[in-house]
Amino acid sequence: MSVSVPRLLTACGATALLALTATACADDGQAVGVVTYSAASQEAEAGGHGEAEAAEESGGHGEAAAAEEHSKTNPYLKGCHKMAEPATKVHNNTNADLVAFTGADCTGESKHIGSKTADATAPHADAWQSYNFTPHN
Predict the structure, then answer these.
(1) pLDDT higher than threshold 80 for residue 62
(2) What is the DSSP letter of 76?
């Protein structure tokens, strides 16, 4: 089976146009992917009560309050990103490395979280409140 030259050129042109369209969606000033973080649970906010004490406070259902999850798709590479709530776990599923901070304005203690990795704070550590992306070439 042979393919005519005009058909082949049309197919190649359409493929190239599709590739250009797909890459145009990722602005150079944005990290491609999603940053997801889990807000501190009520248990952690209550000062580190154990599960039994937290269950007693929540009506005796036998489980601590669940953490709420937040996400940001294709965040800008520049600037400080304030989290909606303090987070105890950050998952960086973008193409850029980020730095998480305990202060709301990208100050305080910090930790590098590489691309496609996650980090959880220690049980009695301060929660993450903001993040920014590391400079890239």
Answers:
(1) no
(2) B
